[in-house]
Design goal:
By secondary structure, the protein is mainly alpha-helical. The protein has one domain: Serine Threonine Protein Phosphatase 5, Tetratricopeptide repeat (Alpha Horseshoe), CATH 1.25.40.390. It contains 21 helices and 8 strands. This is Carbohydrate-binding protein SusD. Its main location: membrane. It is found in: Cell outer membrane. It comes from Niastella yeongjuensis.
């Protein structure tokens, strides 16, 4: 069992308050006093517990859905009414979301809560503890979590309010995106000197200098889109601070898949080399925040006939003790990136005919109507077939309600991603797989892209050499001899599938207005989301984003 120091402590510390970055909706209280803690570095980690608890809230569910289902990476259509969920998944796919979409509301509230929780902790600790190196490091970590939350808000909503004061209930309108960018940049730069340079179990899941540089690199790579000013050379410099540390490496081809397994973490093969900043998950952990705070990937990604099933209805391939929903899949447009048969990353997908571990066919027994309710309507004769996951999504029951139908043909549409491999040790739908936010391979590809976009090469590295450094650890196919921005984009798709960055990439590459699946909307205002309904209820001074 992995040790998760931050979250074990956080379970004791979480206050359960509901906060917003614009206004506190429930007055927060704390038992922190000068006599209790923090008195040393370990105590500051404990004090930061509620912040990290809040951070892991929506990452593996609502946040991922908003980032993936608005792109060609993922889709969650209904099956016989199941998973329609008020049309929120339909809206994500068609780019027709409104300010009432549940994902948009939930994620604004989640990120606002993180920001408010940081503001609270900084306010309390400022009053209870003297200035010094210990407090400076503690504050730097807290403010980096806030910077990440603000980055996610800026990336998704554009202009957002800036609020760093706990107890200030003044309503405030949004700040321009460029101003938010500058605020985040200044916060990161101010934090870096006080952050740890240690990479170990003790700092895993916490912001170090390298996590800070990774966030800076991500900002600079997208700066031209955010602010109109290119910062590709600055992106390269941020990447170089991580590369030159020699504390991270690209995990070997043999260990790539294991990096995302349930027992990944600071001591695990694969993840220990690559994870710069990750969010730990523990299937036994609970908290009092109003978020899932759980990794539910298997629930959505594993076909329902490959989890716990009734006798004859399938085969529990992953030995997981619960019934999966299996509504989520990719689209053919995204899967087309996985066209190298020698690439280890192909194995993160379930595609086509399925077999048991012993090589025999994975068969499902149902009725003919249960197999295909359209072709065999009313036919209750038994029917056995080999599970076949097909690439295309077909709305054969209803285009209006985004519905494929409620039979085996419908439920087995779409290739499934199992990068966050199902956790057979968990008695619930929660998993122990930690989720990386920044990986070393992202640093390598960001630097390669920044060079191609005009940044100054450094350390004797070129865009081509950097890309080949990664590819030699992922495929046995020959190294590239040429490189383009599009080839880097395709490589990012292969490397970071299901990690929540694809929307960010598509926008930077000008591909978010494209067509895929059933989506034809090319409106550029959809690059940012509307300010959600619940935000206006808390802060009436907000103004809606253009196009909504």
């Amino acid at each position: 069992m992995k040790k998760r120091l931050i979250y074990i402590v956080a379970s004791l510390m979480a206050t359960g308050v509901m906060v917003s970055c614009h206004k506190v909706t429930v007055v927060a209280t704390s038992e922190l006093t000068p006599e209790t803690f923090p008195q040393d570095a370990a105590s500051y980690i404990s004090a930061a517990g509620p912040v990290y608890v809040a951070l892991r809230g929506n990452v593996a569910a609502e946040w991922f859905f908003q980032q993936a289902y608005s792109t060609d990476e993922g889709i969650m259509p209904a099956r016989g009414g199941n998973w329609y969920d008020g049309g929120q998944n339909l809206q994500m796919h068609y780019h027709t979301w409104t300010k009432d979409n549940n994902y948009i509301n939930a994620n604004w509230y989640w990120l606002s809560t993180i920001i408010g929780e940081v503001n609270q902790q900084v306010s309390i600790l400022t009053k209870t503890q003297p200035a010094g190196a210990v407090r400076d490091t503690g504050f730097a970590e807290l403010k980096m979590v806030r910077a990440l939350a603000y980055y996610f808000m800026m990336d998704n909503w554009g202009n957002v309010p800036i609020d760093t004061l706990f107890g200030d209930y003044t309503a405030r309108d949004k700040s321009p995106r460029a101003e938010v960018f500058n605020f985040i940049e200044s916060e990161i730069k101010a934090a870096i000197p006080n952050l740890s340079t240690t990479v170990s179990k003790a700092t895993y899941g916490r912001f170090t200098q390298y996590g800070a540089y990774a966030l800076l690199a991500k900002m600079y790579l997208n700066a031209e889109y955010y602010t109109g000013t290119k910062k590709y050379t600055e992106c390269i410099a941020a990447c170089d601070n991580i590369i030159s540390s020699n504390k991270f490496s690209i995990t070997d081809r043999a260990n790539y898949l294991q990096a995302f397994y349930p027992l990944n973490g600071p001591d695990a093969v694969g993840s220990k080399d690559e994870f710069i900043f990750a969010i730990p998950y523990d299937a036994t952990f609970t908290n009092t925040f109003p978020f899932r705070s759980a990794n539910y990937h298997a629930r959505y990604d594993v076909p329902r006939s490959m989890g716990k099933v009734a006798a004859g209805a399938g085969y529990n391939y992953f030995n997981i003790p619960y019934v999966t929903g299996g509504p989520a899949s990719t689209l053919p447009e995204f899967y087309a990136n996985f066209n190298d048969p020698n690439d280890i990353r192909n194995k993160q997908w379930l595609t086509g005919l399925q077999f048991k571990p012993d090589g025999s066919k994975l068969e499902i027994t149902t009725t003919k109507q249960g197999y295909d309710a359209i072709a065999f309507k009313g036919d209750t004769n038994r029917y056995t077939f080999q599970l076949n996951l097909t690439p295309d999504i077909v709305l054969r029951q209803s285009t209006t309600t985004f519905d494929c139908g409620n039979d085996e043909v419908a439920w087995n549409m779409g290739y499934r991603n199992i990068k966050f491999y199902p956790d057979a040790t968990s008695a619930s739908m929660n998993q122990n797989n930690d989720i990386p936010i920044f990986r070393y391979s992202d640093i390598v590809l960001m630097k390669a892209e920044a060079i191609l976009r005009g940044g100054t090469p450094t350390l004797g590295q070129t865009a081509l050499s950097l890309a080949n450094d990664l590819r030699t650890k992922r495929t046995t196919s020959p190294a590239w001899t040429t490189i383009t921005l599009d080839s880097v984009y395709n490589e990012r798709n292969r490397e970071f599938a299901w990690e929540g960055w694809h929307r960010n990439d598509m926008i930077r590459y000008g591909k978010f207005e494209g067509t895929w699946g059933f989506k034809t909307n090319t409106d550029v205002t959809r690059r940012i989301f509307p300010i959600p309904t619940n935000a206006f209820a808390v802060n009436p001074k907000l103004t809606q984003n253009t196009g909504y």
